[in-house]
Structures are given as structure tokens and as C-alpha cells.
Amino acid sequence: MNIPPRKRKKATSTSSDLQPVANPQDFSHQDNQDVVTIDVPAVEVPELTPEEQSDRLHLERKVERAFFEAGKALAELRDRRLYRSTQRTFEEYCKDRFGFERRHPYRLIEAAVVVDNLMQMCPIGTQIEVDSSDGQQQSVGTQIEIESSEQQMCPIGTQVLPTSERQIRPLTKLEPQQQQEVWQQAVQKAGGKVPTGKIVKDIVQRIMERTQVPNTYQLGEVCQILAKDNPELRGKGGCWAIVTQVNEFTCTVRTWDGELTVGLKHLKSYEYLPEDCQQMQEVCDRISRVYSSGLEESVQKFLESLGKLKRAYLTDLEEKVLGVLELEINTEN
Q1: What spans are recorded as compositionally biased (Basic residues) (predicted)?
Q2: Residue 185: which domain range?
Q3: DSSP percent split of the chain into helix, strand, coil, nearest 5
Q4: In terms of domains, do 226 and 131 share one?
């Protein structure tokens, strides 16, 4: 059967659907007619008041020296052994309390020493302003009296200081005078701003290349620490230490109370035989365990004296006293 074709329905539209086709020229004309100029009033940013400027400077300095304050606090925690009630060693304490890996707290401590040294470049004979403990600025003359941690940082405009530990990590390999010189060069290269760690590292590398001395120390070697006007080694002069890491220009060494990084010129090998070095390693472990146990101050002094021995063995009396101390801490535990 043939199906008849369907008829198409005619499209219908209302009057509202029918729009005249616009002439392109009309658009151009209409656009020109609809251009409207809008006046936007300028917003004036008010200047900071003297009090706000002081607050800003005070808060900026807190941010800048966060790592510095951390390093100073860690150094005091370590030196006063304030961890002894909960942990046996400083490294264990930093790991459990702050989540710091083994080297990080020592890097912060070393960085704080560098910042202390850099702050010595502040001119003392000129009139400057420093922050007081209440955040207000006070003017001082030729004598600067530092009464709080708020006053220890050099004011902005007088000296640019580091804002992170990484920026000055390369400086820990240098002598105090070299640290100051390199930092000044780095600030100049950064256009008067805080230099990056890479800028500082490049300058240090050039100095090292000019004065490079081959590092011949070996892991486990027993050396004597030579303080030689290095404030970082205060109290360590004459102590023996065991090399735990050989770096390009420094060695990381272990003493009875922790690790530190020492420049090659501050080390002198005892040239012990391998078996003597092994024996000193065992003595170091024993002294460290007793030292970190928190016994009386007189005991600590005895242990510190063992840390300055210039021989690779303990006398019979020293061995007996150390054995008694080991027995004591084992009994307490």
C-alpha cells in the first residue's frame, strides 16, 4: 500500500518573534552612540602612622630572626642539658620534641653563631635606633646596650641580615672575619637586599677554590680540636673528637656531648692506629651514655676531663670510676 506523503506544517510566528535584520552600519552607529565615560574616584591609601611603622618593623624582625631565635634556644637546651629528664641524648630530644632530623638542630645552632657574628658589623659609633622589649623604638648614642633579644638585631637600613638558615649555611665553613666579608659581598650582589643561599654559596666557593686544602681525614679518625679564635668552638679546645663525616672543606666530628662541624684548620690528627681509634670510639660511646644520664655536676666535670685525654686508653682508676658510673645509671634505669 502506498502511504500518502505527509504535508509539512507551516512555521508560525508571533509578532514578537519577528525582528528586522540589522544593518552592520547601524551597529557601528549604535556603538558610537552608547559609549559612556565613567569617572572612577581615586582611592587614597593612608600613610602608616609612626606607631604602625614601629609595629610593622617590630613584627618584620620577628619573622626575620625566627631561625636565629630557634638556634639560640637549641644551643641553651643542649648546653644546659635541659632534655635529660626525658631523653638520653640531645639528638633524641630534638627528634621526639620537634621532629628534627639529626643534623638540623646543629645547623640552626651554627647559623645562630653566624648571625651573632654578622651583627658585630653594626656601627657602634653612630646614632641608630633599635627595638626595645615593648616594640617601641628608642634612640641611642655611641654606646649600644643590649638588654633583650629584641635589641640584638641590627636595624633595617643599617645592615641587611639573613632571614633563613639556608642563606648562611655556606658561611659556617669560614672564619668569622671571612663570614662578614662574604656576607657584605653577597648583599651587594643582591642589590642591597637579602641574598639567596646560591649567591652566598657561589662567593664561598670562589674563596675555597683559591685556598683549597685537600681533606685527608678518614671516618673514625681521632683528632684534637683547636679552638684558635673560633667562637663556635668555645669550650671545645683541646678536646678529642672522632670523625663521623668527611666533607670537602670540613669534618663533622663527635665529642662526648654531641656532634659539630669543624674546619680543617681547627683539627689535628692524633695519628692513632686503627685499633686505637676503635677503642676511642667505644670510650666515646660510654662517656656519652653516662654524660646524658643527668648525674651530678661533679660527675659531669669528671667526664669532661676524659674528653680531653691525649692518649688512646683509660687508666685503671679512670676505668674503674667510669664503670661505677655506668653501673649507677643502669641501676636507675
Answers
A1: 1-11
A2: 51-210
A3: 45, 10, 40
A4: no
Residue 35 lies in a domain: no
Question: What's the pLDDT score for residue 137?
Answer: 36
57 and 164 together in one domain: yes
**pLDDT per position as a tens digit, 57-98:** 878 777 777 889 999 999 999 988 888 888 888 888 999 999
Interhelix angle 274-291/316-332, rounded to 10 degrees, is: 40
User: Same domain for 55 and 71?
Assistant: yes
Q: Using one digit for the tens of pLDDT, what is the confidence trace for 210-250?
A: 766 678 899 999 999 998 777 778 788 899 999 999 987 78
- 105 with 151, same domain: the answer is yes
Whether 31 maps to a domain, the answer reads no
Which residue reads 606607631 in cell numbers?
51
Q: Do both 55 and 200 map to the same domain?
A: yes
The answer to whether residue 295 is domain-embedded is yes
3-state secondary structure 154-202: CCCCCCCCCCCHHHHHHHHHCCHHHHHHHHHHHHHHCCCCCCCHHHHHH
CA dist 143 and 132 (Å) reads 15
- What phi and psi, each to the nearest 5 degrees, are found at residue 225? -90, 130
Cα dihedral 196→201→207→211 (10° resolution): 160
Cell of 70: 630557634
Domain count, the chain: 2
